[in-house]
Design a protein that fits this description.
Number of strands: 13
Number of helices: 11
Strand order of the largest sheet: 1-13-2-12-11-8-3-4-5
Helix content: 25-40%
Structural class: alpha/beta
């Protein structure tokens, strides 16, 4: 009888363990799990070859994202004009770019963007890095920028930085940015969309947050406010939420200026899994997709990420994004009211 009771007990324990494994599986049960970006893509019905005015959501609040597959000066001009937001004659126009780490990073080339910048009477702007390399100090960084064709250019932190206020952030109350941000009141955040070793991907939100931050500001974002001299924070979601906070701080600061305006353009070419801060990036597995623009950086990055999830050869890029929980920066940015993940794509191709 004792043997029989022992057998029954063992069977009960075994069934309990099997049930537990079936529901845990390394994550939350399906009924409570947050959707992946791939699942969000299906919800928005956007594909890598969207037809004109593809609707991501019928919500009247959905943001508009303009798109062309023509990756050329003409295509860039077309998405810009579609936004219908132009500087006044006396506005000081900043074109926020990444100048690219030597020797072979995938920064945006002058044969694509040069005429656009000249046509706006724009000045390239950037800040120094916090990780070393050729762009960590102003003197060498200016030389790299010149070598890569970014002229005229202002490094916004070459004479120091300043703090700006963040209202309603998840992690940060202030952001530390290059103080020459104050010299410009019309900003074009012109980003090369790509993967990123730490953030999962880089687009408008990364260019807004890390891109406008001084070295101290970059460190504060990476560490969720804990350090101004280290980029190793250890809490990935806190880092991504701090990126969203810093983005909001920059946007609100620019909009608070006299006639302050800001627009966003993402170029989806040379789609490596590595950032332009990597001087020897991995070769792209995804073909060039297009140029997208919006007045909403959240919608813009979501649309680009959705296109990645639909693209052929996306496996390595998707692994990079999901390993870093990259979509969370978009989620956090929407949560704090910076923009809307729901969007409508309008094609501007002829």
């Amino acid at each position: 009888m004792k043997n029989f009771s022992s057998i029954i007990l063992v069977l009960i324990l075994a069934i309990s363990l099997l049930t537990a494994c079936g529901t845990s599986g390394g994550g939350a049960p399906p009924s409570t799990r947050e959707p992946t970006s791939a699942e969000h893509t299906e919800a928005t019905t956007l594909s890598a070859e969207p037809t004109n005015s593809v609707t991501a959501n019928t919500n009247a609040e959905a943001a508009v994202v303009y798109m062309t597959t023509d990756i050329s000066p003409k295509g860039l001009q077309a998405v810009y004009e579609a936004l219908g937001v132009t500087p006044n004659a006396d506005d000081r126009v900043a074109i926020k770019v990444t100048t690219g780490e030597p020797p072979a990073s995938n920064y945006l080339r002058q044969d694509l963007i040069g005429d656009f910048v000249k046509g706006r009477n724009g000045t390239y702007v950037e800040c120094n890095t916090a990780y070393g390399g050729r762009r960590a100090g102003a003197a060498l960084h200016y030389q790299v920028a010149k070598d890569h064709g970014f002229e005229p250019i202002v490094l916004m932190d070459d004479e120091g930085d300043m703090q700006i206020t963040i209202e309603g952030g998840l992690r940060l109350e202030t952001d530390t940015v290059g103080k020459k941000i104050a010299d410009f009141n019309f900003h074009v955040v012109l980003s090369h969309f790509k993967g990123h070793q730490m953030a999962g991907f880089g687009g408008a939100l990364k260019n807004l947050s890390i891109g406008y931050g001084s070295a101290a500001g970059k460190a504060l974002i990476h560490t969720a406010g804990k350090s101004s001299n280290s980029i190793w924070g250890g809490d990935q979601d806190a880092f991504l939420e701090s990126m969203a906070d810093a983005s909001k701080g920059v946007v609100n600061y620019i909009k608070s200026m006299n006639n302050g305006q800001i627009i966003y353009i993402n170029v989806m070419n040379r789609l490596s899994i590595d950032c332009d801060c990597n001087g020897n990036p991995s070769a792209p597995d995804i073909h060039d997709i297009g140029i997208l623009a919006s007045t909403d950086p959240v919608a813009l990055d979501q649309a680009c990420l959705d296109l990645i999830y639909k693209a052929s050869g996306n496996e390595s890029f998707v692994r990079r994004v999901e390993a870093q929980n990259g979509v969370h920066v978009i989620e956090a940015a929407e949560q704090i009211g910076l923009g809307n993940r729901q969007y409508i794509v309008e094609r501007v191709d002829d």
